[in-house]
Amino acid sequence: MKRRLRMPESRWARIGLVVLNLAVFLAVWQIVAKQGWINSLFFPAPSETWQALIDGFSDGTLGEALLWSLRCFAIGMIAAAVVGIPIGLLMGTSDAAYSLLSPYVWAMASLPRVAITPLLILIFGFSQMAELVLIFLSALFPIIINCMAGPKTVDPSLLRAGRVFGASRLALYVKVVFPFTLPFVVSGLNQGLTRGLVGMVIAEIFGGNNGLGYVIQRAGETFESPTLYAALFLLVVISLTLVQLLRWLEVRVAPWRNQALDT
Amino acid sequence: MAYQYALVVYHTEQVENMDINPLIQARGVTVSYNRRRGEEPLVALAGVDLDVAAGEFVAIVGPSGCGKTTFLNVVAGLVRPAAGSVTVAGREVTGPGPDRAMVFQDYALMPWRTVEANVRFGLEFQRHGLSRSEVDARIAEAIELVSLRGFERSFPYELSGGMRQRVGIARALVGRPQILLADEPLGAVDAMTREAMQGELERIIAASGLTTILITHSIDEALSLADRLVLVSHRPGTVREILDVTLPRPRFDYDIKAHPDYAPLREHVWELLKGEALGAKEVRA
User: Which chain A residue has its CA at the smallest distance from B119's CA?
Assistant: First the structure.
């Protein structure tokens, strides 16, 4: 008889399994690296990465890089949201705005944003501005495209109901179109976040002299792989935290969309 | 080829038992939609005449694509006719108004609003100068009327189809309209719920003294609910008829289908519509 592996029902048992999984993985890695079975320049033991993390924070280099990256990321993201959300909504609402802007939006959205890094460095030099602009541009277009989809896909039946019950054009927009669009805005932000992080790292690796990307690049050049791993680890933590936060927000603003998953 | 979907309704022997001033009066209502350039416009309605007396329940029955929904949209003030007019209580309809409310086939509830907030939507833009507490009282009353007490905080996605449509009915009634326009209100609920909801609808409408225009595909639903049936044709735009349904009320206290008059009525309606339904299928194929 075949036995199937099944996930346990209880929440704590699941968390326990995840912890166990990671512990075994790290322990095996630790042993294999310490025994010299793998090149510790490429795959340093977890204990060394941990040490590099502690050292990096105690001498301030990692903390400073982390703060720099987070600050740049926040500025670029907020700017992208402030510019992208209204443009997206406008393009979704007005056919004229859509016809006018869509060629540029689609061109920029399909262009791998990394490709414009040299141009940005040419324009802004090796400055913070180059990084901010790259984060901004990386996050902007996914935000615009998602926000645009909202008003374009509003259920016509809801609009009909709004009109029957006396909503003016403005009220229709505020009470029907906008709430309908909110989940689209959140998924736009979610996609913008991941793209923006890519932009941030790229800018720091190629043009920056600060931030986690710069730490990664420096550590690679000086063969300090534990530091490199420590910076990668921090990036994973940032990215996972932000994405989970946005997922949570997505469920909060549109619980009805997750109904299919529940049943 | 001309896409002519004429819908002309005669009212002959009904005229004498109608009020002198019917509440809803449709005269020569013609609606056409623009199609692609170079093509003739699609005529959805051509010269529809219909009178509905206050408190009357009229069911419009016909195959898909005969313009029933378009007619309802004209009465609701959502679509302006190209020719002809609709008056309600003597005044010409130029847009939506609080005297008319609608119930939709797909419920059209705002998924982000609770049951209570969805019902509130019916009063949000036409408060009739009510105070806050009066609005709240109206909402509670409407929710009570459709037996949804205890579900005020639920969201539509948490409710069954039948319950969602109760929310839709409460939203329509909360503004105390004179006229209820019901566009296939039970078309999307399962057969058992549908049967039960018909009884519910009869009770609610009788209790609130509404004038109702119901659109339906179902002959049984029309016969179970309406005072009069308006049979509309799809193609070739022939004139059908208006039929008095003299079955006793309330019809849901017992099985109205067992009434001796029911079968002959149903047969008559089906005879008239059979050709329409088949014709419609041919056209689509």
Answer: A165
Please give chain B's pLDDT, 285 residues, in tens.
333 333 333 333 344 444 457 899 988 888 887 777 777 777 778 788 889 999 999 999 887 777 788 889 999 999 998 888 999 998 999 999 999 999 999 999 999 999 999 999 999 998 778 889 999 999 999 999 999 999 999 999 999 999 999 999 999 999 999 999 999 998 888 888 888 888 888 888 888 889 999 999 888 899 989 999 988 876 544 447 888 888 888 787 667 888 888 888 898 888 888 877 666 554 443
Q: Is B103 helix (H, G, I), strand (E, B) or coil?
A: strand
In B, residues 142-161, which contact A (CB 8 Å cutoff)? Answer: 155-157
For chain A, say whether B175 makes contact (Cβ under 8 Å).
yes
What chain B holds in terms of domains, given with CATH numbers, is: 1-93+212-285 (3.40.50.300)
pLDDT in tens, A37-59: 888 889 999 999 999 999 999 99
Strand B211-216 to B179-183 pairing: parallel
Question: DSSP characters for B211-241?
Answer: EEEEEES-HHHHHHH-SEEEE---SS-----
CA distance A47 to chain B (A): 49
For B180-208, b where at least 16 C-beta lie within 10 A, e where not — what string? bbbbbbbbbbeeebbbebbbbbbebbeee
Distance of CA B259 to the CA centre of its chain: 25
CA–CA min distance B273, chain A (Å)? 28
Sheet holding B42-52, edge to edge: B42-52, B24-33, B83-88, B91-92
Domain boundaries, chain A: 52-258
How many Å apart are CA A77 and CA A81, to the nearest integer?
A: 6
Q: Which amino acid is at A86?
A: P
Pick among A157, A159, A165 to test the B interface (most B CBs inside 10 A): A165
Question: Above 0.90 for ipTM, yes or no?
Answer: no
CA B246, B251, B253, B258: dihedral to nearest 10 degrees?
Answer: 70
Instruction: For residue A163, give both structure tokens.
Output: 């009109």
- Other C-beta atoms closer than 10 Å to the C-beta of A184 total 25
Fold annotation for A52-258: MetI-like fold (1.10.3720)
Find which of B72, B74, B121 to mutate to test the A interface (most A CBs within 10 Å of its CB): B121
Smallest Cα–Cα separation from A178: which of A162, A198, A195, A199?
A: A162
